[in-house]
Amino acid sequence: MRPQRQKTRFLTVSAMLAALGVVLLGLGAFVETLDLTTAALASILCVWAVIEMGGAYPWMIWAATALIGLLLLPQKSPAVFYLFIGCYPMIKEKLEKLPRLPCILLKLAVLHVMMVLAWLVMRLFFPAEAQLGFGWMLLALYALGLAAFVIYDLALTRLITFYLRRLRDRLGLKKK
Predict the structure, then answer these.
(1) For position 76, what pLDDT does the model report?
(2) pTM above 0.70, yes or no
(3) So what's the architecture of 3-171 in CATH?
């Protein structure tokens, strides 16, 4: 395939994945209890882009989905969550090239940075949606966030492994 044709194809697929990501975030805005779940599901689209397209395409999908979600969604929390969760597949790819202990420590550092930034963005820009208070409620939210992140990371690893070992060859999507 010619390089220009491949770039056009990748850009088109990126636009479709960004649109699908916004639709998923819209579902999270419509059903308020699914905001974090739909943000995690939308980030899986970036996982596929990292594997199949690489380069800047996953970052473009993440940025376009987050920006459009923040601009268009009536409830902003799914888009804010996605703003911080959606970039994790690209970060995960880089971190998993490191030895195991530094990889785990850096993943936890990334989690803490993401959680603090998400909370600050919600408090500063969308105060009506960030009425959590302080004290034990914030501590409980932190503990749940940590547990959810560990489960999310393990699920992503298993999903990537399943895709690479079982689905990629069957779908005929190998990089050429």
Answers:
(1) 85
(2) yes
(3) Orthogonal Bundle (1.10)
